[in-house]
Design goal:
Chain lengths: 117, 129
């Protein structure tokens, strides 16, 4: 291995890997309790736990994957996913807000995986 | 004779109206058993726990127990291309409206027995003045 011959290279690699790890955990670092506090607007259509939808064509959010919720909210915010109502709400959210909200809904019971049988 | 013609015409119209209403209701509520067969393909991504979408990377969404109307509108939007995702656009393109309703009925049927929404609904009703 190169690293055994070049301690500096090894250290650089290690630092790089640690940085990657840091970036990864930061990506999954929503705070569910903060998310609950920030979710009052969301609640009127999706319910406190994300399972009480105002209309049947609004999705349930409880139990949805954290990173999918982050992806969806960012897509609404950027306009990649077009929805007049959600664009309005998502435009005011920071990355941190999005991660907190996603952490809250992902931590609730609700949606399940399809089962292969 | 005139009135009897009118009467049979009226009955025929009533019958047609009832048949139309019944078919409209059937379209509104898909068949979960037929949906399960169609959903075999969906399992390839949505049935594997923590299956990842790539470019960008994120978990494929959970859809078991999702709302009927949301599944229908999502699949129709994918089919029409107003909601963009290469794989889902291609999959939805193969589905008729009836297929979409059947699949939606199947996904709804997967909601856990003690669906949290029931409790939330009751709580909301209970707190109403």
């Amino acid at each position: 291995m190169i690293s055994t011959h070049h301690p500096r290279t090894m250290l650089t690699t290690l630092a790089f890997l640690l940085a990657l790890l840091g970036a990864h955990s930061a990506a999954a670092a929503g705070n569910p309790q903060r998310g609950l506090e920030k979710s009052t607007v969301c609640q009127s259509c999706h319910g406190v736990d994300g399972n009480l939808s105002l209309q049947d064509d609004y999705p349930k959010l409880g139990g949805q994957h954290y990173d999918y919720l982050v992806h969806a909210l960012k897509a609404y915010r950027s306009g990649d996913r077009e929805n007049a109502i959600m664009a309005g709400f998502a435009s005011g959210l920071s990355d941190q807000d999005i991660e907190d909200l996603a952490a809250w809904y992902a931590s609730q019971d609700g949606l399940v995986d399809l089962s292969v049988d | 004779m005139f009135t009897s013609t009118m009467r049979s015409l009226f009955s025929a119209l009533c019958f047609l109206a009832a048949a139309w209403l019944a078919s409209a209701a059937a379209a509104q509520q898909g068949d979960p058993d037929k949906g399960k067969v169609i959903a075999y393909t969906c399992n390839g991504c949505h049935g594997i726990p923590f299956q990842q979408n790539v470019y960008p990377t994120y978990s494929v969404p959970r859809i078991g127990g999702q709302n009927y109307g949301y599944i229908v509108s999502s699949l129709q939007a994918y089919r029409e291309g107003t909601r963009k995702h290469a794989t889902m656009n291609a999959q939805a393109h193969t589905l008729s409206d009836e297929d979409i309703h059947d699949v939606a009925a199947y996904f709804v049927s997967l909601a856990p027995e003690d669906a949290p929404s029931e409790g939330a609904e009751n709580a909301a009703e209970g707190s109403a003045p």
